Amino acid sequence: MRERTIASHFVRAALRGAERQGLDYSALLRELGIQPALLEEPRARLAPEQFTRLLQGLWALLDDEYMGFGQRPSKRGTFAMMGHAIIHCRTLEKALVRGMLFYGLFPDAPRVQLQREDEWVRLSIDSSVLWDPDHFLTESLLVIWHRLGSWLIGQRIRLEEASFAYPEPAHSDEYDLLFPCPRRFDAASTSLLFHSRYLNMPLLQDERTLKQFLEHSPADLLARPDGGDSLTSRIRRLLGRDCANWPDLEQVAQQLHISPQTLRRHLREEGSSFQELKDHLRRDLAIYHLGRDELSIQALAEQLGFSEPSAFHRAFKKWTGLTPGAYRAHQES
Fold this sequence. Notes:
Keywords: DNA-binding, Transcription, Transcription regulation
Pfam families: Arabinose_bd, HTH_18
Protein name: AraC family transcriptional regulator
Radius of gyration: 21 Å
Organism: Aquipseudomonas campi
GO molecular function, one term: transcription cis-regulatory region binding
Number of domains: 3
CATH architecture of the largest domain: 2-Layer Sandwich
């Protein structure tokens, strides 16, 4: 899962707060090897670690964990202080409620709430105080609260539904990595729904593990994909990284204990296909290796299962809008 890549849409969206503040971030992009051509190409994608470092760089430049999207900045260190405030709570519910009360102390902060709905609990965010045209910070906060909660109890909180109080965006197929559950747009609130049993679970973390967690969080919480239990994620895990020896659809169906017809139907329901899934995995593996420079483009083409480098060039340009050589040059320049 670590080779999952980040769509350039999220990079452009992350930078809009800095643009609003009139910040010159060109030096940061150069330092991270993110070229303007990558940002201008809608199909371009970045490695997760680049995205993590971009968010950390924006926080440092702005001294604002809201990245320029709030009415007032949330000074760097606020999230860490909230972590110290909740780490000794006995249960997840107490920790989440205390964390939400902590942020409630700040004027003009987006409001985060927990509401019980029978056996379910809804974590909702009221972001009406934000300037957030792409809903980037709003969705980031949802992801951060979900993954923080999962980390606190030492297990992934399974989401039943993600709701968004705005229309479905053009890049909604990327949401599978952020919200691996049924998604609903034009809803009454922007929220996550999960089972209330998680709220009574004890915290398994302490100040020592919190210190390690805070070295990279919350930036890496946003960059790290969460494939969850979706069929596409399970198939990616079954396929692995050895493209030359990938099982075919029938073999994958057998490993999942379903018929090939059922597998095709389920993939259709998730808005995908077996071929598209393999293409996306090849694309992400290609970007992963192109950023590391340990393989020549010809060797990489062979490893990805292409019969000749020209076929790899054509496929990569179709996936990202750039040739493999141009992509690698952008990373190195």
